[in-house]
Write a structure and sequence with these properties.
The complex is a heterotrimer. In chain A, helix 2 packs across helix 11 and helix 10 packs antiparallel against helix 11. Chain A is an all-alpha fold. By secondary structure, chain B is of the alpha/beta class. An 8-stranded mixed β-sheet of chain B has the order 6-7-8-3-9-10-12-11, sandwiched between helices. Chain B has a 4-stranded antiparallel β-sheet with strand order 2-1-4-5, covered by helices on one side. In chain B, helix 4 runs parallel beside helix 7 and helix 5 crosses helix 7. Chain C contains 14 helices and no strands. In chain C, helix 5 packs across helix 8 and helix 5 packs antiparallel against helix 10. Chain C starts with a helix and ends with a helix. The relative contact order of chain C is 0.14. The chains are: A mainly alpha, B alpha/beta, C mainly alpha. At the A-C interface, helix 6, helix 9, helix 10 and helix 11 of A face helix 1, helix 6, helix 7, helix 11 and helix 12 of C.
Chain lengths: 284, 320, 308
């Protein structure tokens, strides 16, 4: 996909009011996460018990947690964990899903059957269950969470790619390319995958939103990133026991999750509109 | 006059896909409305039945007078009393016209129950009679069937039965045979023609097929790109078409004894609403087009030989 | 219909076997000797040998799987490492709570979701639609555990209307049902809206109008009936999703149930319990899809016809 083909839809998505607002928020979250050390006056991991349980105030905008750590600082660092875990695991999942789906859709036969069976199997199970099984095997932590998220969404991307490939595979121009002696690899890389790319990338983007929730949920169960590394889910996990004493400890990380995920969804919707691929997404 | 459409224009959003349509139809008469796809035929049907809002359209000017009542000024609730009761509708594709998850009998019964106030049993008895009169075998058993169990021709008979169930004065049939097999087409057209004659109904038959018009219609109105080209009595029209478009349409019917290769099409395609040309809308495709045709649309006016015509340079009988 | 049911159940068998293999393998995929994962640290050798013999851990993997599956089929889900109680009885205690929560959440989200979807479709692109779809977006993007905590804070702590946690009375069910139900409602409303709009645009609807039927009747008796077919299918496919929601929500509300048992088992490395919970949830998911197919067949004569 050329740069212009990518930027065009993004620009028209940004031209809508919802898209622009969502894009702005996402850009802000990413920039703040990247520049975290420059922006935060506090350290995310240094405890200061006398400062514990401070409600939101001028010194600590969002208050402090049970160890006296600045909540805003931890949310910003938490964005690093939550975003990188979700984005990386979804990116790997999209890549793997496209390879599996393309191979299954293009070559058909036994390979297709095998892939379809496995994919249908995982697809009918809620992502959280698939993720819990994997975390049970790999053990808690960032690695386990990433593998769990990646595998949990793999079925979706494989299905989508396969469906896209299947619809274009029998088009006349593919036949023509084949009769002119184009190799399978060439046809896949040049004709089929570029066509499947748009819908799969959008699905990947929307899934990143779900992945952030999944990461937070695993973190909440104490199965995600381990202390002292902050993640939005883990922060809420420790906060849940202190719900009555210091509700802000769970309120703000949750708001961070919710606004980011809503922004991702709004931006994804705007992109879907811009690319006009709603029907293709629904087909799969 | 049973149905009299005067100067009717239809708007969908900012565009006007149908302008200045005038039609007249009496009881026992069959009027063919002919045109290529996109010419505004189906919009006419929706306008007469007041169903334009369903596709986001509205009547922008003109009137539809039915038995002396202007349907365009009637509130929706009153209009509903006409639909299915006095004006019935036979749609294009019988494959999709019936509700696939409701039994045939119930779909026909509802018309009599709703409009004639019949009870369940009486409505069913009426349905069975109706189906039998349309030569549908085992009418009682068909009532318990679902649409997917019937053939296309049978489904279209059911749709016609639904149309007749309210004992209407006018039937509008929108391309009733396009979706059917050729052998079944003739049967359905014949059936509709016979019903109009026997029951004294007005039948507005919308079609793109001049052959169908020649078979059953009394009068014909030719529509091109949202405007009427010509309306005439059928015999006259076929004998001496006055509009070049009409002649071209007639030229599209295969006839016995034609020389191979003499079947002519019409060059070009019907323009879409967005690209209607100025002047006479047919001029880009017309062999007789000259400067006046580009400059202004011809008025739709009565012709000495009978009928109405919109053409700057009409064909004389000798030309045809 | 009975033939169809039998065929559908037979189709589920390979799926069940595949899932059971994965769940069985959990014990072997975890780093370390499986027997260590079945006993507490510092268990005497005699006890270890007994466990090894019981599960056939010294025999080939296939045989172990056979032994395990055979036991599972006979209701023997092993013994909890932490509580030393038969897992089957733990599950037996948890299951009714999960069923009550899942069933209530399903009913709540179907009823509210279908209602909202119908309203949104009827006022498509106008303010009721925009408000509902906006709410749907928020409802489907809030992490359910967070929503649960907020609800506890608002309704149990501040207002004191409902108990904070537990499963003692019917009123303890309300907040958990709301928590799961809002996400489910969002899903159902979205699917219903699209299905209503799609079904409302079909040809036969035009003919229903042409027959003079009142629009409200067309919408509720005809269009909705069609729209419900995909809704039921999605709901059935997503029964697992609702159960998945139950996992988190049970944990948040400290309700007994499969979900909280599962999470506790995971945190305590109580693998027989983890395996049993996952197996139960998997079975529930499969039964859900089965139920969806059956209901779909009942609703659609074309599907019924194809089944013979």
């Amino acid at each position: 996909m050329s740069l212009r083909r990518t930027l065009g839809p993004v620009r028209s998505a940004l031209a809508t009011r919802k898209g622009a607002l969502a894009g702005l928020w996402l850009a802000l979250v990413v920039v703040v996460a990247v520049l975290a050390p420059l922006l935060t006056p506090y350290a995310y991991d240094i405890q200061s018990l006398p400062d514990a349980f401070r409600p939101p105030a001028a010194t600590h905008w969002l208050g402090t947690d049970e160890f006296g750590r600045d909540l805003l600082t931890r949310i910003i660092y938490g964005a690093r964990t939550s975003l990188s875990v979700s984005v990386v695991s979804i990116a790997v999942s999209v890549l793997a899903g496209m390879i599996l789906g393309a191979a299954a859709g293009y070559f058909g036969g036994r390979l297709d059957q095998a892939v379809t069976v496995v994919v249908d199997l995982t697809w009918s199970f809620p992502e959280i269950l698939v993720a819990l099984i994997l975390v049970a095997i790999i053990g808690p932590g960032v690695t386990g969470t990433m593998v769990a998220i990646g595998v949990a969404y793999l079925a979706q991307f494989t299905r989508l790619t396969r469906a896209q490939i299947m619809t274009i595979r029998s088009e006349t121009y593919i036949e023509a390319a084949r009769s002119l002696g184009a190799s399978d690899g060439f046809i896949l890389a040049r004709h089929l995958l570029p066509n499947a790319l748009g819908p799969v990338l959008i699905a990947g983007m929307l899934a990143t939103g779900d992945a952030i929730i999944l990461e937070a949920t695993l973190g909440f169960f104490g199965l995600g990133a381990q202390p002292p590394l902050p993640s939005w889910g883990a922060m809420m996990s420790s906060g849940s026991g202190l719900l009555f004493k210091a509700p802000w400890i769970i309120l703000f990380p949750g708001l961070a999750v919710a606004t980011t995920v809503i922004a991702i969804n709004l931006f994804g919707d705007a992109l879907i509109h811009a690319l006009d691929i709603k029907t293709r997404l629904r087909e799969a | 006059m049973l149905l009299s459409v005067e100067n009717l224009s239809v708007a969908i959003g900012p565009v006007e896909p149908l302008s200045g349509l005038s039609l007249a139809l009496d009881r026992g008469e069959i009027l063919g409305l002919v045109g290529e796809s996109g010419s505004g035929k189906s919009l006419t049907a929706l306008a007469v039945t007041g169903l334009l809002p369903l596709i986001g359209g509205r009547v922008s000017s003109g009137s539809v007078s039915f038995d002396g009542v202007d349907l365009c000024r009637l509130p929706e609730a009153d209009l509903r009393g006409y639909r299915g009761r006095r004006i019935a509708f036979v749609t294009q594709n019988p494959m999709t016209a019936l509700d696939p998850i409701q039994r045939i009998g119930d779909q026909v019964d509802v018309v009599a129950r709703l409009h004639l106030g019949l009870g369940k049993a009486a409505a069913r008895a009426r349905t069975v009679d109706l189906l039998a009169s349309l030569r549908i075998p085992e009418a009682a058993a068909i009532c318990d069937a679902f649409p997917h169990q019937l053939s296309g021709g049978m489904k279209q008979r059911i749709v016609i039965a639904m149309a007749l169930a309210g004992d209407p004065d006018l039937i509008i049939a929108d391309e009733p045979t396009t979706a059917l097999d050729v052998t079944v087409q003739a049967q359905i057209i014949h059936l509709l023609g016979q019903l109009a004659r026997d029951r004294g109904l007005g039948l507005l038959l919308i079609t793109h097929d001049m052959g169908v018009v020649a078979q059953v219609c009394d009068k014909v109105a030719v529509l091109y790109a949202g405007r009427l080209a010509e309306t005439r009595e059928v015999g006259q029209l076929f004998a001496a078409p006055a509009h070049p478009y009409t002649r071209a349409l007639i030229g599209c019917i295969p006839r016995e004894g034609m020389a191979p290769g003499s079947l002519s099409g019409i060059p070009g395609a019907v323009p879409s609403v967005a690209t209607y040309p100025g002047g006479c809308r047919f001029h880009p495709r017309c062999p007789r087009a000259a400067e006046p045709c580009r400059a202004a649309p011809p008025p739709f006016a009565a012709r000495p030989g009978g009928g109405m015509l919109a053409c700057h340079f009409p064909l004389e009988p000798a030309d045809a | 219909m009975p033939g169809f049911l039998i065929r559908r159940v037979l189709l589920l068998l390979p799926v069940f076997l595949a899932v059971s293999v994965v769940i069985f393998l959990i014990l072997h995929l975890i780093p370390g000797d499986p027997v260590d994962n079945l006993v507490k640290v510092g268990t005497p050798a005699a006890k270890r040998a007994e466990i090894t013999a019981r599960y056939g851990l010294d025999r080939p993997l296939v045989v172990q799987y056979g032994i395990w599956l055979w036991a599972v089929m006979h209701g023997d889900l092993g013994t909890s490492i932490v509580t030393h109680r038969p897992v089957a009885s733990l599950i037996g205690q948890a299951l009714p709570h999960s069923l009550a929560l899942g069933g209530a959440a399903l009913a709540f989200s179907s009823a509210l979701g279908i209602l909202l979807g119908v309203v949104a479709a009827a006022w498509r692109d106008r303010w009721p639609d925009q408000i509902i779809m906006g709410g749907v977006l928020v409802g489907s993007t809030l992490p359910s555990f967070w929503l649960g905590l907020l609800l506890i804070l608002a309704f149990a702590v501040q207002l004191g209307w409902f108990p904070v946690s537990g499963a003692r009375g019917w009123d303890s069910l309300i907040l958990p049902v709301l928590t799961i139900g809002l996400g489910g409602t969002a899903l159902v409303a979205r699917v219903t809206r699209v299905a209503m709009i799609e079904a409302g645009g079909r040809d036969f609807v035009m003919l229903l109008h042409a027959k003079g039927l009142p629009p409200g009747r067309i919408r509720l008796r005809h269009v909705l009936r069609h729209a419900l077919i995909p809704v039921v299918t999605i709901l059935a496919l997503r029964i697992g999703w609702i159960l998945g929601g139950a996992v988190t929500v049970e944990y948040v509300f400290a309700r007994p149930g499969l979900g909280s048992t599962l999470i506790k088992g995971l945190n305590q490395h109580d693998y027989p319990v983890v395996q049993a919970c996952l197996l139960m949830l998997a079975v529930a998911v499969m039964l859900g899809t089965l139920l969806g197919d059956v209901v779909q067949a009942l609703m659609d004569p074309r599907v019924r016809g194809a089944l013979g």
